[in-house]
Amino acid sequence: MLLTITTDYQPATDLGFLLHKHPDRLQTFDLSFGQAHVFYPSASEAHCAACLLLDVDPVGMVRGKNRNQGDLLGHYVNDRPYVASSLLSVAIAQVLGTAMAGRCQQKPELVATPLPFSARLDVLPVRGGERFLQDLFEPLGYTVEAERYPLDEAFPEWGESPYYSVTIRATVTLRDLLTHLYVLIPVFDNEKHYFVGEDELEKLLAKGGSWLAAHPQKEQITRRYLRHRHSLTRQALDRLLAMDETEPKSEPSETSPQEETLEKPLSLNDQRHGAVLAALKASGARSVLDLGCGEGKLLRDLLQEKQFEQIVGMDVSIRSLEFAQKRLKLDRLPPRQAERLTLLHGSLIYRDRRLEGFDAAALVEVIEHLDPPRLAALERAVFEFARPQTVIVTTPNQEYNVMWETLPAGQFRHNDHRFEWTRHQFAAWAEKVAQQHGYQVRFLPVGPEDEKVGSPTQMGIFTR
């Protein structure tokens, strides 16, 4: 089985530093089930490819097994030496463990830098078909190419096999790429070559906790990774849910008490929702996404407008969605009214097919809660994959902060804000996103406008 990782980032040979494997040498590593070889088919400033080749010894794997076990022949005659499986995950952890842990002494700045990578797996067993490949990789921001093989070319009537050559591409950190592969390879195979116990649950949470909690297919991933052991799966999902709710909110849209204190004299939150609602109505949209819906204040306004026939609110926080359900009194709404509204748990930094096909989307005070690398993922999830006709984005205007005497100089309005942009910075970001994804954008002020510093909230309306 073969894993090939390539990059065109320049200098591309930096891949050698990240992998801790020199491009000029073939390196061989002994494993309990065979050998792993690392080599570079090409290594130049413009393009670099690194291969991890696993040479499985099927006899060595069986050595020491109890001969009284049933189907001993099956231990020798199987597809394990030829396909990507949990054996490859083990090889990634043992041979590329330093890279997967995110350590690089020579060039530490590269560890946290998303780079353009592609990874090819020859050959991957996918128990679930090509759509399953897309459902697992695409929410993580990858594009997927898959070539399926027949069971036997000499007997086409036998049909297709579950085996694919798979290539995924994305701009990600190498650490994330390796971690995604480590967790998902045995999930596609739906099998493991070793006993799964409590330690495997801890591995899953350690390797996947940072991204798995918000993945739309987290239950399926968890169940397969833990070999359908019900008690372990339940424990893992409970801990992922707790992890999701206790980590700092990265995508809230509701104002904090600190923001409410600042903005109350202006009723800015009401003005903001009013401006967004007016823009959505003017767009002619019939179906609307409220992304980062928080506790449902905008959803409540949308429900009052008959124009909007399908309304979806999505948030990363289960707790916020529970508040939204209570605020909107979903259990008391008339059936026709309730059918118009759907609440979804999900993250805006992963592709989610549930968000595709809508007329419009609103992100109200969301983007400033994201670190820049995650902001780039949100751009793709919303503008490239979901791709509504209209996208409305609001964010604080940092220049206006001087108008609040109670806000210390240099401090953000919310302690979870990762940035607050000036009007020039917001315009530069919005125009770049619009150009990259085939949109046009115009800007409107929200709230009282000062001649020097502008309005407290800035709004961009993207249309295509």
How would you describe the overall organization of this protein?
The protein has 464 residues and is an alpha/beta fold. The protein is 37% helix and 22% strand. The protein has 2 domains: 2-194, Hen1, N-terminal domain (c-terminal autoproteolytic domain of nucleoporin nup98); 257-463, 3-Layer(aba) Sandwich (Rossmann fold), CATH 3.40.50. The chain has 17 helices and 14 strands. Strand 3 and strand 4 form a beta hairpin. The chain is globular and about 75 Å long. Mean pLDDT is 86; it is low at 66-70, 245-253 and 261-266.
How do the helices and strands line up, and which of them pair or pack?
Layout: E1 2-7, H1 14-19, E2 27-31, E3 34-43, E4 48-56, H2 58-62, H3 72-76, H4 86-95, H5 97-100, E5 115-125, H6 130-137, E6 143-150, E7 160-172, H7 174-189, H8 198-212, H9 218-225, H10 230-246, H11 257-263, H12 268-282, E8 287-291, H13 297-303, E9 310-315, H14 318-328, H15 335-340, E10 341-345, E11 360-364, H16 372-386, E12 390-396, H17 423-437, E13 440-446, E14 457-463
Parallel strand pairs: 8-9, 8-11, 9-10, 11-12
Antiparallel strand pairs: 1-4, 1-5, 2-3, 3-4, 5-7, 6-7, 12-14, 13-14
